[in-house]
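Give me structure tokens for this 376-residue protein.
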Amino acid sequence: MDLNYFVWILKQNAKELTFARRLATEVSFLTKRPVLTLHNASMGAPSGWGIPDFKTQIGRDFLIFNQKLEKENTQLSKTKIKRLVNLWQKRLIEPQLREYLWQLKETQKDTFKDMQREIKDIVLPCFWEKFSTQEGVCWEWSVDLLKRRILFLKHKSLQERQRLFLFFPLLIKILKTAALFLKKGRTSFVLPYIDKFIRSSYGDKDIDFAKVFFEFITQHVPEIIILFFDETVHPKGPTLKLAIAALNKEKEWIKGLGVYGKGEIIKAQDIAALSRHYQIFFVSAFQEKTKPFSFREIREQYPHSYHPAWRDGLEGFFYGTQVEFLSGSDIKELVITDKGPIPLGQFVRLKLKEYALVPKSKEPFWYFYASLANLN
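Here you go.
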């Protein structure tokens, strides 16, 4: 791809970061309530890089905020947190594990038994029940490659479970502290979090984690407003609408806007008004109505209009970032710079933050939070 065109398209992409930051900040300012922005990987993930750190948001009261945060000691149910963690693992780790094990079972029964013993302590009880009905396609992968992938997922599972057990209580502490701050006259507070909350291509078949997570947040922080950001390559009929409808079956607590609603322009004032009836809003950080172009079409046609769909099919787009695992891509693309090669995802993330004028942060607590919230 021509370098100048790549820079142009990244600058267009950076507008999504700017929009998400401005919308969330204005909603918080208008309602005097904390806003949690959820950025659904992989298409919706980049807008999560546009939210500035705590010190930038809070300013001179940052030390006071930290002091109040240390005193916040809400007791959370370990059972509920464990349920959230298990749901995350069940969706994003175990399907891959089953697939790789199935390949071994079909081709190398001795190695299969070894790997079965290797993962027995990390999988959930229902894992083997589903495995008995597992279907798959036999890939021409070596036994060594399958073993490496299984062991990687084993270590990834342990790592992610530790992250989530730390993260969910911290998330509540920060949001509750922010809610108190806003009641005392502070202007706004936005907290970003990137993850694969819903596999949007599954329609209404992957809502369990999102439902339990939304309930967990709204129960502990009743003042919260959640902005759920995702992008779609099918603006006329996004499958995420099916998930919204399913989540609203028992109670109408989620509002889809823009491409996830009736095509309306998304404005902070409208969300503020609607927040009397809804706490969760599904939105896109892209407001224009241009034709989606895939990455293949981008390379061939160099269109002069922009759509987030350009990221779809660009393997390695998140390489070097925490979103890489969530994207499901194994491709490792590098960008050659004056300072040497850099993973494509790191390069894109740094450039998007630069073009969106996101202040650089050296604040240790923010860096710790960002590492737990998949922002790095």
